[in-house]
Amino acid sequence: MNSFRIFSKADEEGGEGGSQPSSSRASSSSSLRRLVSEKATSLLSSITATIRSIQRRGLAKRLEKVTAESDMLLEDHVVFLMDSVPPRFKQQTWRLLYSTSKHGFSLQTFYRRVSNAFPTVLLVKDVRGSIFGAFATDPYMVQHKYYGTGETFVFKLHPDAEAYRWKYDKEKGSASQNQNDFFLLSTEDCIGFGGGGRFALWIDQELLHGSSSCSPTFEGLERLSEEENFTVQTIEVWSLGD
Q1: Region (Disordered) spans which residues (predicted)?
Q2: Measuring CA to CA, which residue among 142, 201, 143, 152 is closest to residue 176?
Q3: By C-alpha distance, which of 119, 57, 68 is closest to 92?
Q4: What stretches of the chain adopt beta strand conformation (E)?
Q5: Segment 56-106, tens digit of pLDDT
Q6: Cis bond leading into 119, ω under 30°?
Q7: Nearest 5 degrees, angle CA 36-CA 42-CA 46?
Q8: Which of 20, 90, 118, 207 is most buried, judged by most C-beta within 10 A?
Q9: 71: number of Cβ within 10 Å
Q10: Distances from the Cα of 11 to the Cαs of 6, 25, 63, 203, in angstroms?
Q11: pLDDT tens per residue, range 149-159
């Protein structure tokens, strides 16, 4: 018996014709995924740009506020200090606690206004125009022994900017934990940073005179002021906190 076969148009166009719908669906699915991915990337880029813009505007406002209140700080100085402090303090609000131009030259007033605040930035401008200071994580307290942690550092802002950090000894622990070095001394008679026979920064009871030397507490420090002994023009203390 003869057998007969009915040929379809697809048979005439070739055996692969039957697989075209499946290939088309795969292509459409791939295009859809690519489109979704491109839109997601574009949205993420837009969000990132918006966040950065907000951060820049926020930083600009913060810089403007600080420099408007300060008698010595420029925007570059503030940015340098923001970059220098430990990461957990970088986004904190700056608040002026004490200024000799507003509150007078008095160590008692100094302690009264800053005693409960931490961390703080102490700034000194001398009569030669140099600007320098110290960052402390502990609140100032009147006592006759050193305190503070290895996150304490001293710095110069003008004419050059440089931060001098604790001369780390791995046997003494991390900077945030170490309590045993000569970081900060604040008595009824003076304020001093650093030890080992020399202060990195020392200010007298009247807040009018001070000195700076190559204290072994801080790595690489020669001195902060142009001359070892200096006369104070202005002192400010800023807190970094909400």
Answers
A1: 1-31
A2: 152
A3: 119
A4: 94-99, 120-126, 131-136, 153-158, 162-165, 184-186, 190-193, 201-204, 209-211, 229-240
A5: 567 888 899 999 999 999 999 999 999 999 999 998 999 999 999 999 999
A6: yes
A7: 145
A8: 207
A9: 15
A10: 9, 21, 77, 99
A11: 999 999 999 99
Quote the pTM value: 0.74
Report the greatest alpha carbon distance in the chain. Answer: 125
CB atoms within 10 A of CB 214: 16
Nearest to 99 by CA among 237, 241, 240, 209: 237
> Which has the closest alpha carbon to 182: 151, 145, 211, 133?
145
Please tell me whether the peptide bond between 159 and the residue prior to it is cis, using omega within 30 degrees of 0.
yes
Q: Residue 99: helix, strand or coil by DSSP?
A: strand
Give the closest residue to 242 by CA, choosing from 149, 118, 140. 118
SS3 call for 147: strand
Would you give the DSSP letter of residue 93? P
How far CA 49 is from CA of 10, 11, 61, in Å, comes to: 54, 56, 18
Three-class SS state of 86: coil
Using alpha carbons only, give the angle 165, 60, 119 rounded to the nearest 5 degrees: 35
